[in-house]
Write a structure and sequence with these properties.
This is Murein biosynthesis protein MurJ. It is found in: Cell membrane. Keywords: Cell membrane, Cell shape, Membrane, Peptidoglycan synthesis, Transmembrane, Transmembrane helix. It is a multi-pass membrane protein. There is one protein chain. This protein is mostly helical. It is 76% helix and 1% strand. The protein is built from 25 helices and 2 strands. A two-stranded antiparallel ribbon has the order 1-2. Helix 2 runs parallel beside helix 7, helix 18 runs parallel beside helix 23 and helix 21 runs antiparallel to helix 22. The chain is globular and about 65 Å long. The protein starts with a strand and ends in a 7-residue tail after the last helix.
């Protein structure tokens, strides 16, 4: 971390914050996954409501151009971007607070950063509102109704402030190992959008969805503010993990040995970070501009893939932007779920690197990459095999026609090819930014992927339409993932065993290809979309799991066994009231 000094191993003091137990990690991942699934399902409900009420035409294209603002804001301020800066900064402040000396470093960090960031968020939101006509013209020059898109953009621009505050709260809470409220924000967000569309849709048309974005952003902040206030102003804790079960979990973990969530035991004493004597990390030391700039530029560069897609699709017939949007929203669900473990372990990784424990960090990264890849490839195979049935069941009603279903399903199958690349980028980029030192390599890797996306998309859009745009997205993000994986090293990131990781990744890739082909064949033989989806999904799952076992993939099974043991161990103690 900036402002911290690394002490020699033989003189290293004990770690300021004890590593979380495997039981805590398992429960945190479960809570995050459950609430993320709920948020994703509500996101599907939001897209279903949009398709049902407004179809896939000029109105939805106009709104989806305005939707670019919350998409970019979410990436910059909540999901990636600021989280890569603030989580390590708050982790260091929490470690200093654990020492219990001097002023509260967490409060000092909030006092030095939150007012300045809030002013910046307000300024950017006002700028977007004033420049909405120019922004719409730049994003979608071929849009038939730019006026509607401008109105929606001005409404969605308010999310810059609300998302910024929500992302700040999420980073602070995760550094304190509080995952419930941050995981619930998209439940609140999508609830606000769905409610606004049904309440105001008849009167305001698609503008009601933009109003919902503004309302949902406020709900995201409200969902986290009470929990953050308790961490800032409540009774001081000696360590961030204060659940009543922490001691019991630690005892059980010691008795049962290492966990696949924790990785193998490291017998050598970790090198600890000697925390500076200053009472709190300040904006100058812990959140330096040199650290913020590459993080935000990477996140913005990554999100520009969507901007490129909509720019190219604006020249195609009406509905092209909508088809891309619906396909992308469904296809990205496996990626979102597969990265839940990485979200939970990000503060753990930052702590390990702050303490100089490279071995623990490497084991953590390799385990996260293996588990996330196995999970997303299962989802990608299912999406590819059952795309027509999924889209038909989710969207084909009201103004969304069978032709829209066919076009969206085709795009979604192409998107599924790039899901592994998206997941690897999400998992690996955390390792570059978690060390708390500036690095521009992720931005260079993402820029190379964007160049590939732009060139391939521009060259294929006339011949292949939306399929060419989706293919460009998949190829571009795969290029970025390959560059990030090849660049892992002690100088830039965590020095993982790259050849071993690539070899292990090839196994689930082969299993997913075979499972997707088998699932698509079975689904195509059934007329009923419900039965076809069931047959295809079951075939994909069975074939994939069997091939993982045959190929000797061991990344996922131990985690499931650990989770099962954790549940069954608690069953005898459950009391029904």
């Amino acid at each position: 971390m900036p402002g911290a000094r690394v002490a020699p191993a033989e003189a290293a003091p004990p770690a300021e914050v004890a590593p979380p137990t495997r039981g805590f990690l398992a429960k945190a991942t479960l809570v995050t996954a459950v609430l993320s699934i709920a948020g994703a399902l509500l996101g599907l409900g939001r897209d279903q409501a949009l398709a049902h009420l407004f179809g896939a035409g000029t109105e939805t294209d106009a709104f989806l151009v305005a939707w670019t603002v919350p998409e970019v804001a979410a990436t910059l301020l909540i999901e990636d971007g600021m989280a890569f800066v603030l989580v390590p900064a708050f982790s260091l402040a929490v470690a200093r607070r654990a020492r219990g000396t001097g002023a509260d470093p967490v409060r000092a960090l909030v006092a030095s950063t939150l007012p300045r960031l809030a002013l910046a968020f307000v300024a950017v939101a006002a700028l977007l509102m004033a420049g909405a006509p120019y922004l719409v013209a730049a994003l979608a020059p071929g849009l038939p109704d730019p006026g509607l898109a401008v109105d929606c953009t001005r409404l969605t621009a308010t999310c810059v402030l609300s998302f910024g505050l929500a992302g700040y709260c999420s980073a602070a809470l995760r550094a304190h190992r509080r995952f419930l409220a941050p995981a619930a924000i998209y439940v609140a967000y999508n609830t606000g959008i769905i409610t606004a569309m049904f309440v105001l849709g008849d009167r305001w048309g698609v503008r009601s969805a933009a109003v919902g974005v503004a309302v949902g952003g406020c709900l995201m902040v409200a969902a986290q503010a009470p929990s953050l206030a308790r961490q800032l102003f409540g009774r001081r804790r000696s360590a961030p993990e204060t659940e009543a079960t922490a001691t019991a979990d630690a005892t059980a973990a010691a008795a049962q040995g290492p966990s696949p969530l924790d990785g193998p035991e490291v017998t050598k004493a970790p090198q600890a970070t000697e925390v500076a004597d200053s009472p709190a990390p300040s904006m100058k030391h812990s959140v330096e501009l040199a650290l913020i700039a590459p993080v935000l530029m990477f996140a913005l560069c990554r999100q520009s893939q969507v901007l490129i897609e909509r720019f190219l699709a604006s020249t195609l017939p009406s509905g092209a932007i909508s088809h891309l949007n619906y396909a992308q929203k469904v296809a990205q669900i496996p990626m979102t779920l597969s990265l839940m473990l990485c979200t939970v372990t990000f503060p753990v990784l930052a702590q390990a690197l702050a303490e100089g424990d490279t071995e623990r960090a490497r084991t953590r990264v390799e385990r996260d990459v293996a588990v996330a890849s196995c999970m997303v490839l299962l989802g990608a195979a299912a999406v590819f095999a059952c795309a027509p049935q999924i889209i038909q069941l989710l969207f084909q009603r009201g103004a969304f026609t069978a032709q829209d279903t066919a076009a969206t399903a085709t795009v979604m199958r192409v998107y599924s090819v790039g899901l592994l690349g998206h997941t690897l980028v999400g998992a690996l980029v955390r390792t570059y930014f978690s060390a708390g030192r500036p690095t521009w390599y992720p931005l260079a890797a993402m820029a190379a992927g964007i160049v590939a996306t732009s060139w391939i998309g521009a060259g294929t859009v006339d011949a292949w339409g939306v399929r060419g745009i989706a293919a460009a997205n998949a190829i571009g993000i795969t290029v970025t993932a390959a560059l990030l994986l090849s660049g892992m090293g002690e100088r830039r990131s965590v020095p993982i065993r790259t050849r071993r990781v690539v070899h292990e990744l090839s196994k689930p890739v082969r299993a997913a290809v075979c499972a997707a082909v088998a699932g698509a064949f079975c689904a195509s033989r059934v007329d009923s979309p419900e039965l076809a989806l069931a047959a295809g999904g079951l075939t994909v799952t069975v074939v994939y799991v069997l091939l993982l076992r045959v190929l000797g993939v061991k990344a996922v099974a131990p985690a499931f066994r650990t989770a099962l043991r954790s549940v069954t161990r608690r069953l005898p103690h459950v009391r029904f009231r």
